[in-house]
Amino acid sequence: ISLASLVKPVFPHFSPHQLQNCLWVFASLGMKDPGPFFEAAVDSIEQRIGDFSNESLVAILTSFAKVKAFNSNLFGVAAEVLAKEGSLIRPQDIANCTWAFASSGHSHPD
Q: In angstroms, rounded to a whole number, what is the distance separating the alpha carbons of residues 83 and 80?
Protein backbone atom coordinates (compact mmCIF):
# COMPACT_ATOMS: atom_id res chain seq x y z
CA ILE A 1 0.00 0.00 0.00
CA SER A 2 1.40 3.36 -0.98
CA LEU A 3 1.07 6.54 1.02
CA ALA A 4 -0.68 8.18 -1.92
CA SER A 5 -3.37 5.47 -1.97
CA LEU A 6 -4.02 6.06 1.73
CA VAL A 7 -4.28 9.84 1.35
CA LYS A 8 -6.47 10.12 -1.77
CA PRO A 9 -9.73 8.95 -0.12
CA VAL A 10 -9.47 11.56 2.63
CA PHE A 11 -8.96 14.58 0.36
CA PRO A 12 -12.58 15.72 0.91
CA HIS A 13 -11.99 15.80 4.66
CA PHE A 14 -8.84 17.95 4.56
CA SER A 15 -9.03 21.63 5.36
CA PRO A 16 -7.89 23.87 2.50
CA HIS A 17 -4.56 24.41 4.26
CA GLN A 18 -4.06 20.68 4.85
CA LEU A 19 -4.83 19.94 1.21
CA GLN A 20 -2.39 22.61 0.06
CA ASN A 21 0.36 21.23 2.32
CA CYS A 22 -0.32 17.65 1.25
CA LEU A 23 -0.05 18.51 -2.43
CA TRP A 24 3.13 20.50 -1.90
CA VAL A 25 4.74 17.63 0.02
CA PHE A 26 3.80 15.11 -2.65
CA ALA A 27 5.06 17.48 -5.35
CA SER A 28 8.37 17.64 -3.52
CA LEU A 29 8.68 13.85 -3.18
CA GLY A 30 9.43 13.23 -6.83
CA MET A 31 6.73 10.61 -7.40
CA LYS A 32 7.15 8.53 -10.56
CA ASP A 33 3.60 9.16 -11.78
CA PRO A 34 1.99 11.97 -9.76
CA GLY A 35 -0.82 12.61 -12.25
CA PRO A 36 -3.47 10.28 -10.78
CA PHE A 37 -2.75 11.47 -7.24
CA PHE A 38 -3.07 15.13 -8.20
CA GLU A 39 -6.14 14.52 -10.37
CA ALA A 40 -7.82 12.88 -7.37
CA ALA A 41 -7.51 16.19 -5.51
CA VAL A 42 -9.13 18.33 -8.22
CA ASP A 43 -12.76 17.72 -7.21
CA SER A 44 -12.04 18.53 -3.57
CA ILE A 45 -10.34 21.75 -4.60
CA GLU A 46 -12.94 22.88 -7.12
CA GLN A 47 -15.88 22.17 -4.83
CA ARG A 48 -14.41 24.44 -2.14
CA ILE A 49 -12.42 26.88 -4.27
CA GLY A 50 -13.79 29.88 -2.36
CA ASP A 51 -12.52 28.49 0.94
CA PHE A 52 -8.85 28.66 -0.08
CA SER A 53 -6.72 31.67 0.76
CA ASN A 54 -4.91 33.28 -2.15
CA GLU A 55 -1.64 31.86 -0.82
CA SER A 56 -3.06 28.33 -0.57
CA LEU A 57 -4.54 28.48 -4.03
CA VAL A 58 -1.27 29.69 -5.54
CA ALA A 59 0.64 26.96 -3.66
CA ILE A 60 -1.73 24.37 -5.11
CA LEU A 61 -1.21 25.69 -8.64
CA THR A 62 2.56 25.66 -8.20
CA SER A 63 2.37 22.10 -6.86
CA PHE A 64 0.45 20.98 -9.94
CA ALA A 65 2.92 22.77 -12.20
CA LYS A 66 5.92 21.35 -10.38
CA VAL A 67 4.84 17.78 -11.16
CA LYS A 68 3.46 18.68 -14.59
CA ALA A 69 -0.03 17.55 -13.62
CA PHE A 70 -1.96 20.18 -15.54
CA ASN A 71 -5.70 20.44 -15.20
CA SER A 72 -7.04 23.20 -17.44
CA ASN A 73 -10.37 23.41 -15.60
CA LEU A 74 -8.69 23.83 -12.22
CA PHE A 75 -6.32 26.46 -13.58
CA GLY A 76 -9.24 28.29 -15.22
CA VAL A 77 -11.36 28.33 -12.06
CA ALA A 78 -8.38 29.39 -9.96
CA ALA A 79 -7.57 32.17 -12.43
CA GLU A 80 -11.08 33.58 -12.09
CA VAL A 81 -10.89 33.53 -8.29
CA LEU A 82 -7.44 35.10 -8.19
CA ALA A 83 -8.32 37.73 -10.81
CA LYS A 84 -11.19 38.92 -8.58
CA GLU A 85 -8.73 39.36 -5.69
CA GLY A 86 -6.58 41.75 -7.74
CA SER A 87 -4.46 43.95 -5.53
CA LEU A 88 -4.99 41.73 -2.48
CA ILE A 89 -2.54 39.17 -3.85
CA ARG A 90 1.02 39.43 -2.52
CA PRO A 91 3.76 40.11 -5.10
CA GLN A 92 5.44 36.75 -4.35
CA ASP A 93 2.14 34.95 -4.97
CA ILE A 94 1.76 36.81 -8.28
CA ALA A 95 5.24 35.65 -9.28
CA ASN A 96 4.53 32.04 -8.24
CA CYS A 97 1.17 32.06 -9.99
CA THR A 98 2.73 33.45 -13.16
CA TRP A 99 5.34 30.67 -13.06
CA ALA A 100 2.64 28.01 -12.56
CA PHE A 101 0.58 29.30 -15.49
CA ALA A 102 3.63 29.64 -17.74
CA SER A 103 4.86 26.15 -16.81
CA SER A 104 1.46 24.66 -17.50
CA GLY A 105 1.04 26.45 -20.81
CA HIS A 106 -2.30 27.69 -19.51
CA SER A 107 -3.27 31.25 -20.26
CA HIS A 108 -6.05 33.41 -18.90
CA PRO A 109 -6.98 36.91 -20.06
CA ASP A 110 -6.71 38.33 -16.53
A: 5
The pTM score is 0.87
Q: In angstroms, rounded to a whole number, what is the distance separating the alpha carbons of residues 60 and 20?
A: 5
DSSP string, the chain: --HHHHHGGGGGGS-HHHHHHHHHHHHHHT-S--HHHHHHHHHHHHHTGGGS-HHHHHHHHHHHHHTT---HHHHHHHHHHHHHHGGGS-HHHHHHHHHHHHHHT-----
pLDDT < 50 stretches in the chain:
1
- The string of pLDDT tens digits covering residues 42-56 is 989 999 999 999 899
Task: Using alpha carbons, select from 19, 32, 87 the residue that is nearest to residue 59.
Answer: 19
